[in-house]
Amino acid sequence: MAERIYLTVAEVIAIHHHQIEEYGGAHGLRDQGALESAVFRPQNGYYNDLSEEAAALLESLVNNHAFLDGNKRVGFAAAHTFLLVNGFDLDVGSRVALELIIWVKQGPFRNLPQVYYADSPFIRFHSYV
């Protein structure tokens, strides 16, 4: 099994910059500590697998509001990137991705590693080739 590749704070900032340039919004970091907390959360050893780590990254970036704008977009893009660099892809369209982000943001609970399980109503994994 290959060693897990985690995103860095600088890489997530670059993802934010790209999202803002591509889709609009305000550049800027609101809370460096919230960003660091979100980025390092998947690395804390608590999660059982890649899917739970990706979900933790998504949930933290969406809900910590580290950036002035684009937190939901950055959360999804960062989680997707994290999965890609570790050999997996999300097989979802933009509508389903939006539903997932809204569910994460408005869900009845905030700790959502189960959103990435294969039997999730939103997502199915397949090997990235």
CATH superfamily descriptor: Fic/DOC protein, Fido domain
Give the CATH topology: Four Helix Bundle (Hemerythrin (Met), subunit A)
State the CATH architecture.
Up-down Bundle
- Mean pLDDT comes to 82
- Spatially, the strands of the biggest sheet line up as 1-2
State Rg.
Answer: 14 Å
Number of strands: 2
**For the record, what CATH class applies?**
Mainly Alpha
Return residue spans where pLDDT drops below 50 for at least 5 consecutive residues.
116-129
What is the helix tally?
5
How much helical structure, as a percent, in the residues?
40-55%
Shape: globular
Q: Could you tell me how far the N terminus lies from the C terminus, measured between alpha carbons in angstroms? A: 16 Å
Q: Number of folding domains?
A: 1
Q: Strand content of the residues, in percent?
A: under 5%
Tell me about the largest β-sheet: 2 strands, antiparallel
SSE run: HHHHEHE
Characterization of this structure:
The chain has 129 residues and is mostly helical. It has one domain: Fic/DOC protein, Fido domain (Four Helix Bundle (Hemerythrin (Met), subunit A)). Helices cover 52% and strands 5% of the residues. It has a two-stranded antiparallel sheet with strand order 1-2. Helix 1 (9-23) packs across helix 4, helix 2 (32-40) runs antiparallel to helix 3 (50-64) and helix 3 (50-64) runs antiparallel to helix 4.
